[in-house]
Specification:
Largest sheet: 8 strands, mixed
Oligomer: single chain
Radius of gyration: 24 Å
Bound molecules: ligand BES, manganese (II) ion, zinc ion
Shape: elongated
Number of domains: 2
Strand order of the largest sheet: 7-8-10-9-13-17-14-15
CATH topology of the largest domain: Aminopeptidase
Strand content: 15-25%
CATH superfamily of the largest domain: Zn peptidases
Helix content: 25-40%
CATH architecture of the largest domain: 3-Layer(aba) Sandwich
């Protein structure tokens, strides 16, 4: 997909010229002829409600007018609706190239708006057709040129880079689990590092290395599967000698629940349980495309949580890389197990801070739905950084508690801890409490994306979240301690 900027939109520069108009403001003067200007004015009169559209097809190109309502009511969420409607219409009419002239939202910068529009259009255009043998109907939309007078090439680059990161994430997350195995994720990471060989490098480790490092709880999750686990250690080095920011992704390529097996209903969606891992790779791609002067490390703990004669059993006690022992009372609380060993592994890099990204608990969906990702941290500065970046990227978060009082739920009579609370209360928080026991050597935050990483149900589809958030966190961290 191509995106560009223009200062002089006109009817003939693309297949379709899209013009958004306010109901209470004059149409701004583009490079339109008088004749076209009159045409546009006539079409506008036929619209009333925000979202109303009028097409005009002529020999020299199509014209699409969309009503944007009152100027003061044109907010980011209104913009999102209009862009969705326009993109849908362009796709439906099988338009290849369009020029988009939407008015600017007040109180937001043009570059911000540009970034939002690009990410939105790209999202809608994306489709996974690899597995369609019949009736594959690829979208025709190939190029969008924006008319947004105050936007810059930098904004364009930012939007495109985030969109590319989102696309990679969605692609990996949507892949079925028979293809997207831990081995496949390792290969994809190697491929990404090869694409950006100038400042990326990648190491993929398997069960032997994990045994050597004592990653007993990562191995316990993997032991029921025919697929060997992988620990991916991928570096983007856009700056020398800076302490790295580390992103740790949950890479469960399929979560059957193990012996604490999940119900059959919608179990297929557990192929998405590697969305955290996918978002780490997508974010690294965005950083590399933006050539950000930062050092970011992605750590991905990848395994398949399966049922077999070799599966870990409820009540088994295993030793983590940190030396702490864990009584696995629920084999479905596997994400925290694989993450914990990766979090201990992260210590070696003396990071600036660490953020883990995981589809960790059903509880976070109950609490926050599909709107905001949940996050927990005891580091106030890091919390502020995350909240600012969420606002900036429009990739929303909500902070959840992580007080010591919640830790008691993890007491075990036999081992150092159990891997899940005995009841379902505050399950997202106890999950974070578990992780916190492996992160004492550095600044850390946990991001639970179980509700935001994919759209549930019949039209299930990965969202690519939280790549916009993570990319923004890294950009902002440039200026923080
Ligand atoms: N991957 C799931 C969490 C999940 C569930 C994400 C549904 C998206 C939709 C995770 O491994 C899990 O099974 N969590 C359990 C933890 C519980 C056993 C303490 C949960 O939330 O039910
Ligand atoms: Mn699980
Ligand atoms: Zn899981």
């Amino acid at each position: 997909m191509n995106y560009g900027l223009t200062q002089k939109p006109n009817l003939s520069s693309s297949e379709c010229l899209v013009i958004g108009v306010f109901s209470d403001a004059e149409l701004s003067d583009f490079a339109l002829s008088n004749e076209h200007h009159n045409l546009v004015s006539r079409l506008i009169k036929k619209t009333s409600e925000a979202g109303d559209m009028q097409w005009h097809h002529a020999l020299d190109g199509s014209l699409l007018i969309i009503q944007c309502g009152e100027q003061t009511k044109f907010t980011p969420s209104q913009l999102k609706k209009r862009v969705t409607e326009i993109t849908g219409a362009l796709i439906k009419h099988r338009i290849r190239s369009a020029t988009l002239c939407l008015p600017q939202i007040t109180h937001y910068s043009a570059d911000w708006q540009l970034e939002q529009m690009i990410v939105q259009i790209d999202n809608q255009r994306y489709q996974l057709l690899d597995f369609k043998k019949k009736k594959a109907k690829p979208h025709q939309l190939e190029s969008i040129t924006f008319y947004l007078p105050n936007a810059s090439e930098e904004g364009l680059k930012l939007g495109q880079s985030i969109a590319a990161g989102v696309e990679l994430t969605r692609h990996l997350a949507n892949m079925p689990a028979n293809i997207c195995t831990p081995t496949y994720l390792g290969e994809q990471a190697m491929q990404l590092a090869k694409e950006f060989a100038q400042n990326m490098s990648c190491k993929v480790m398997g069960p032997e290395e994990m045994h050597q490092m004592g990653m007993g709880i990562l191995l316990a999750v993997a032991q029921g599967s025919a697929q060997p686990p992988r620990l991916i250690d991928i570096h983007y080095k856009g700056a020398d000698d800076a302490p790295p920011i580390i992103l740790v992704g949950k890479g469960i390529t399929f979560d059957s629940g193990g012996l604490s097996i999940k119900p059959a209903n919608a179990m297929d969606e557990m192929k998405y349980d590697m969305s955290g891992a996918a978002s780490v790779l997508g974010t690294l791609k965005a950083c590399a495309l933006l050539k950000l002067p930062v050092h970011v490390i992605g750590l991905i703990a990848s395994a398949e949580n399966m049922v077999s004669g070799t599966s870990v059993k409820s009540g088994d006690i295993v030793t983590s890389m940190s030396g702490q022992t864990v009584e696995i009372i629920n084999t479905d609380a596997e994400g925290r197990l694989v993450l914990a060993d990766a979090l201990t592994y992260a210590e070696r890099y003396q990071p600036k801070f660490v953020i883990d990204v995981a589809t960790l608990t059903g509880g976070i969906i109950v609490a926050l739905g599909t709107v905001a990702s949940g996050f927990m941290t005891q580091d106030e500065e890091l919390a502020q950084l995350i909240e600012d970046a969420a606002k900036e990227s429009n990739d929303r978060v909500w902070r959840m508690p992580l007080d010591d009082d919640y830790q008691d739920a993890l007491d075990s009579p036999l081992a150092d801890m159990i891997n899940a609370g005995f009841d379902r209360t505050a399950s997202s928080v106890t999950a974070a409490c578990f992780l916190s026991r492996f992160t004492e050597k550095y600044r850390w935050a946990h991001l639970d994306i179980a509700g935001t990483a994919w759209i549930f149900g019949k039209n299930r589809n990965a969202t690519g979240r939280p790549v916009p958030l993570l990319t923004q966190i890294i950009r902002h961290a440039l200026n923080s301690r």
